[in-house]
Amino acid sequence: MDPIRNPYAPGAGQRPPELAGRDEQLAAFDVVLERVSRGRPERSLVLTGLRGVGKTVLLNALRSAAVRRGWGTGKLEARPDQNLRRPLSSALHQAVRELGHPEPEAVAQVLGVIKAFVHRDAAPGTRLRDQWNPGIDVPAARGRADSGDIEIDLVELFTDVGGLAADVGKGIAVFIDEMQDLGPDDVSALCAACHEVSQSGLPVIIVGAGLPHLPAVLSASKSYSERLFRYQRIDRLARDAADLALSAPAADEDAAFADDALAAMYEATGGYPYFIQAYGKAVWDVAPSSPVTAADVAVAAPEAEAELAVGFFGSRYDRATPGEREYLRAMADAAVVRREGGEDADDIGSVSTAEVAAVLGKKPQSLSPARDALLKKGLIYSGERGRIAFTVPHFGRYLLER
């Protein structure tokens, strides 16, 4: 079929042509927006899931929903090597601009507080011209959100921004991707600020997205975080949603998938949205005509798998050192040992660190450096003490097939 008309989009965070299987989350978020706008109490939202399930795509879709309601929005991606002040200031600057408050003086006052908040990040004695400029033209405010204590400053900042939004009957939403990479102090401050604004009834919410262990990260910071956020686990698509993700874009291009092709695609992709897009693109390019058949899927599968091996799996595997790769392979082998019939590691959510050590014939303590490095690189996660799992679906299969 015509490759120019290929509708599938296997890109990182790129919205697929059909956002299937997420209607429940979108509808629930519309309720949150309406309740907050009316001054009703509501919790912030946290999306969790493995890589490739569409968390970033859904995060962007939720942001679009807030923009359509006239909210001020900003987005940032957390990084382990960066504290919260700079990216949050940029996000809130954009949110204030989107809000469209009619009083320039009120807007200037809040922008001054945002500028003071980010300038507090500069080292003592840094000259003004050498400080990072967030693009705010007004002078930095003094005595507000600039104490140097991130928790105090963040509460004051959210209070002022929330007050500006309340003036116009709207809200402020900050969207944080890779939220598990925030530093411990920033996580604690963010939880405290959300707690404060929720008690004050201010229209400010946080929408975070991260790996499955993100709730544990938040809970370790503040015990009340379990009640502070509404957690939604984003998982693979059910069969009907996966079929829709393939068939709806094809129908828009006057094409179709045969029933046996849809079944073969679900078996190959496991319902993971990124894999659906990758296989969909490959199958479209090799299929001679519509409808796409199971035979077309079989022909295209090696090409799709090769693409995933380089761009999705390989790019992550290459980040690991030889010792870390040995640990990853041992995780896959440990999962196979636990299963009768030789199923791969993707069929098990996690393995114990003791099982990994047994595969390698080493003491668990000696493997701690490799495990900790893989945790920091985001290749594995620990949902519970003494257990670990891959952050990438089908990664165990990839390792065993190498």
- Provide the gyration radius in Å: 24 Å
Report the end-to-end length measured between terminal Cα atoms: 32 Å
Give the CATH H-level superfamily of the largest domain. P-loop containing nucleotide triphosphate hydrolases
Number of domains: 3
The number of distinct helices, counting runs of at least 4 residues, comes to 16
What is the N-to-C succession of helices and strands? HEHEHHHEHEHHEHHHHHEHHEEH
Helicity, as a percent range: 40-55%
Number of E strands: 8
> For this structure, what is the CATH class of the largest domain?
Alpha Beta
Q: Any low-confidence stretches, pLDDT <50, length ≥5?
A: 341-347
Summary tags:
Rossmann fold, 3-stranded antiparallel sheet, 8 strands, Arc Repressor Mutant, subunit A, 5-stranded parallel sheet, 10% strand, 16 helices, globular, 402 residues, alpha/beta
Describe this structure in words.
The protein is of the alpha/beta class and 402 residues long. It has three domains: 23-233, 3-Layer(aba) Sandwich (Rossmann fold), CATH 3.40.50.300; 238-317; 322-401, Winged helix-like DNA-binding domain superfamily/Winged helix DNA-binding domain (Arc Repressor Mutant, subunit A, Orthogonal Bundle), CATH 1.10.10.10. The chain contains 16 helices and eight strands. The chain has helices at 23-37, 55-68, 85-99, 104-119, 150-167, 184-200, 214-221, 225-228, 239-252, 259-269, 273-286, 294-317, 322-338, 353-360, 368-376, 395-401, and strands spanning 44-48, 72-77, 172-177, 204-210, 229-233, 351-352, 380-384, 387-390. The strands form two sheets. It has a five-stranded parallel beta sheet, sandwiched between helices. A three-stranded antiparallel beta sheet has the order 6-8-7. Helix 6 links the parallel strand 3 (172-177) and strand 4. Helix 3 (85-99) runs parallel beside helix 5 (150-167). The longest helix has 24 residues, at 294-317. It is globular. Mean pLDDT is 91; it is low at 341-347.
